[in-house]
């Protein structure tokens, strides 16, 4: 009977994310999100860069990461590399800084003013806090209270 611990699984996932983040940064891309589905057989990676991602970018990244994952002995069945889409998720403070002035949709973990869902323009980002303009009023929110945040596509 082998030793099994969720701690080691989380550590492995974190190590994978760190590996991908540093590799992609060296290639001029930003890691947006990593999904492992079907018990690790599908590895889906969302990437971005200033000006957006093209199909050629996805092919380049896929070819590079396929070789890297073999060298690093990371088991997966299929690799998908994709743009985060027009409704890109915002996770890190750097994401919010980059998209200051854009319209965002977010869901809070703990309600503020008896409300969890907000749609507004991202006005400020400072020391773990954002200021969102909602219907002409400014709302100060902690990044640590955000459950989900996404850009609202301009169509």
Helices, by number, come to 3
DSSP helix fraction: 25-40%
Overall mean pLDDT: 89
Globally, the shape reads: elongated
**Radius of gyration computed on alpha carbons:** 18 Å
For the terminal residues, how far apart are their CA atoms? 56 Å
Structural class: alpha+beta
Share in β-strands: 35-45%
Low-confidence stretches: 1-11
How many strands? 8
**Main sheet summary:** 5 strands, antiparallel
Spatially, the strands of the biggest sheet line up as 7-6-5-4-8
H/E element order: HEEHEHEEEEE
Task: Walk me through the structure.
There is one protein chain. The protein is α+β, with helices and mostly antiparallel strands and 155 residues long. Helices cover 29% and strands 39% of the residues. Strands 7-6-5-4-8 form a 5-stranded antiparallel sheet. It has a 3-stranded mixed sheet with strand order 1-2-3. The protein is elongated, with a radius of gyration of 18 Å. Mean pLDDT is 89; it is low at 1-11.
Characteristic key phrases:
single chain, 155 residues, alpha+beta, five-stranded antiparallel β-sheet, three-stranded mixed β-sheet, 29% helix, elongated, disordered N terminus
What's the topology here?
Layout: H1 6-27, E1 30-37, E2 42-48, H2 55-71, E3 78-82, H3 93-98, E4 103-112, E5 115-126, E6 129-134, E7 137-142, E8 146-151
